[in-house]
Every structure is written in structure tokens, then in C-alpha cells.
Amino acid sequence: MRPLLLVLCLFAVLAPVSSVVAKTTYADDQTLWQDTTWEGEIVIDGVLTVAPGVTLSISPGTLVRFTFRDTNDDGVGENEIFIQGILKAIGSVEAPIRFTAADELRPGAWGAINMMMSEEENVLAYSIVEYGYRGYHAHFASAVIRNSVFRHNLRGLQFQESTVSLKNSRIVDNRNGIQFRNSKVSLSDVDIFGSYWGLRGVYNELTIKNSRIEGNLINGVNLRDSTLNITTSHITDNRKGLYLQRSKVTLEDSLLTDNSEHGLYLEDSEGLIRGNHISDNGRAGIRILGFTGEIKENSLAGNGEYALQNDGLTGIDASGNWWGTVDMEDISTLIRDSRDRPETGAVNVIAPLHREPLFLPIITDRISEQCLSH
Q1: Residue 119: predicted pLDDT
Q2: 210 inside domain
Q3: Which of 15, 30, 283, 304 has the fewest CB atoms within 10 Å distance of its CB?
Q4: Domain total of the chain
Q5: Which structural domain range is residue 308 located in?
Q6: Please, what sign has the CA dihedral across residues 130, 23, 80, 204?
Q7: Is the pTM of this model over 0.85?
Q8: What is the pLDDT of residues 75-85, one digit of tens each?
Q9: Residue 310 falls within a domain, yes or no?
Q10: 338-364: pLDDT as tens digits
Q11: Is residue 195 part of a domain?
């Protein structure tokens, strides 16, 4: 069993922190001017700023609660931690740190863990972040986030002009899972479930590995003007699985299945699509509105309307893939291209694979929904 399964199940069970050693309240707007360590229960009743050069350390088992304040009547809470210094919030399996609402438990009940101009290595680990506007927000900041859960926020995480490493974590049942721009982000062993938008961004460098992006109502991954490297991941049961606009992509050894529209949607993009299982999507396995690069050694059988739909003006080389058959006439019925619409480019499907590729990306030990029901 992966350690992530045990860790997050323990988080969910232990989330209602029942015993605290002390209670500290920060009323109105205050600033921490010296290094501070929190433990027990902390109540934030305003905007608490951590000054530049100051380190805020949060001990395992600490409960941080934010009261509700809404000065502009938009329904979104404004009380938050505004960090210009350094954050070291490191819980444990037995005693996770929890950031939550002090009043009504609803998305947007408080502001954010807000990192601003904080370019030292900030760490958030073994923590639960819930019911915020932006659970974790970084702007001109650097952060390592690991072994944590973000749930029931309007936006689970949001980054701008930042460098963020996210590992062994779960982003579940937020309005939007994670969004960022002009950032360098890596995701490893991360689950993004149950949002409207799973992951979206513009002008980014993004790496995704061993991750699952499932059950998001709009798109699983939506990137524009970005560079993406994704391996051994699952993008399933979204509307569009992976939608790229004007981006460079390397997509390998991944599973794009059961998305209600297209598994992979490429628009004015380039790159390498190799060794993936793209099947059982409601419309096309791959839809293209402009792509240059290689599409090879993929399994493209069993999609709803087409295996590959080329609506772009240029031709596509899709030789050396598995189509569920080796009969060229049957394969032609799985393709939409210039034969159907003369203004579009042709798709080359010569030398089809004679059997489905043996490798199928499998990520074992799904995190049980029961773990999140507490």
C-alpha cells in the first residue's frame, strides 16, 4: 500500500482535533515582527501579516481557525495569513495541522494562506486546508507542499510568478482545483478530483507524474501558452481530459479514458504523444485543431465517434498506433480528416500496430472516499 493512502486516511480520521494545549487569538489586523511558533488552537480574527525575514513555524496538531469578515459584501471571507516572510508548517501523520473556518463551514469562509514576495523555501506538510477562498496562494513565492489535503475551497491552490513543488497530496471537492500563471510547477503523486476545473493555467512550465485528475465537471487539464511534461498519469471521467492551446507537450505512458467529450484536445500545439491509452472517450480520442509532432505507439481504440479527428488545416502523422484493428478500411472509418472535410489536413495511419501496446499505466491503491467522509 502506498504511504499516501495511509497518510491521507489518517488525516481524515484525525481531522476533528479535539484536544489543544492553548488558544491564541489574533484580533483585527496584526503583524508578526519576530520568529513565532504556533501550537494548540490559533484563531485569526483579521489579517495576520508575517513580516519579511520572519519565520512562522506551526507545530504538529495545531488547529488554525479563521473567523468570517466580509467588508465588500461579496460573500467571501477576508481574514487570512499574509506571509512576506517564511512559513514552516510541518505536521505529522498522527497530528496533522488543520486550517479551517471558525464559523460556518462553507467554501470561501476565509481568505487564504497567502504567500507574497516570499522567495525562501516555504514548506506546508501533513496539513488539511479547507473552506477557504484560495486555500494556498503564492505570488512571487517559492513553496514545497507535500502530504496534504485541500478540500471544500473555492480554489484549492493558486499561484502566480511562483515556483511550487506539490507531492503526495490530494485536491478534492473544491470549486476549482488548482490554477496558476507564469509559474514553474511540478506535481508528483497528486490527485485532483471533484472540481469544476481540475487544473488550468497560462504561461507555465508544468510537470505531472504519477497523478490522477478525475471527475472534474469541465476539463481535467486546461493549459494555454505553456510547456507540459506528463508521464504515468490518469486523466479520466472529466468533460475534456487534456486540452492544450498553443503549448508544447510531452505526453507519455498515461491513461486518458472515459472523458465525456475528448480525451486529448490539441489546438495550435506541438510535441510528442507516445505510449498512451486513449479510449472510451465520448467523442474523439484525440481532436486536433493544429498540431506538429509525433503521435505514435498509442492505443486509440474504442472511442465514441472517432479515434482521431483532425479539424486543422495541416496533415497529421499518426502512423504506428493501435486502432483496435489492422484493417485499413476499418481504420479509415475511425478517422475524420480531409476525406470528410476537404479543407482539413489528411491523417496518415500507415503501419498500424498489430496488437495493443502491452504497457498500461496503473496507479494502485486509490484513496478511499471513506477516508474523506469523516
Answers
A1: 81
A2: no
A3: 30
A4: 2
A5: 230-374
A6: negative
A7: yes
A8: 999 999 999 99
A9: yes
A10: 999 999 999 999 999 999 887 655 565
A11: no
